[in-house]
Design a protein that fits this description.
The chain is mainly alpha-helical and 160 residues long. Helix 1 packs antiparallel against helix 2, helix 2 packs antiparallel against helix 3 and helix 3 runs parallel beside helix 5. Helix content is 78%, strand content 0%.
């Protein structure tokens, strides 16, 4: 009887430790996924900086901005694929990424040819994008956080 009680106590303790570990691991994975947004936010800051640089230098290299837009699109795709494959993306996070993806779908795409020239209306759209990125909190000399809540708020600011 005493041995049976000891085995039950050990079994209960082992299960508690195991359940705690599983919840901790899940929380840790969610935090890691949330931190992946840091790379995408870095691409957004670089885009803002590239637009500002081109604007100050009479748009001598339009492709630089187009490449940065492509980096942003690839970053969005990477976050979605990684999140889905690892089972870490929430519906809210997926909606945020789709919102950001649709927002950037309206901008010119990088064709791979180095002689792309932007029209005046496209340049004006990109200048507005630069201003919107800065006002949302993505710009040179602006701090940004890696947590998803902050990222989500900035996406909302940018797209509204």
């Amino acid at each position: 009887m005493k041995t049976k009680n000891i085995i039950i106590v050990i079994s209960v303790l082992f299960n508690i430790v195991l359940i705690t570990f599983v919840f901790w691991k899940e929380s840790h994975q969610q935090e890691m996924y949330s931190n992946l947004s840091f790379g995408l936010q870095n691409d957004l800051v670089q885009l803002e900086s590239a637009i500002d640089y081109q604007n100050n230098n009479k748009w001598n290299d339009d492709n630089l901005v187009l490449e940065k837009i492509e980096d942003v699109r690839e970053g969005i795709n990477q976050l979605m694929v990684t999140g889905k494959n690892a089972g870490m993306i929430t519906k809210s996070q997926e909606n945020d990424l789709w919102t950001l993806y649709r927002y950037f779908a309206g901008f010119p795409t990088y064709t791979g040819f180095p002689n792309t020239k932007l029209e005046n209306n496209e340049i004006n759209e990109l200048i507005r994008l630069r201003d919107d990125l800065r006002s949302a909190g993505w710009g040179m000399n602006l701090g940004y956080s890696s947590d998803w809540a902050s990222f989500s708020m900035k996406i909302e600011d940018l797209t509204n």
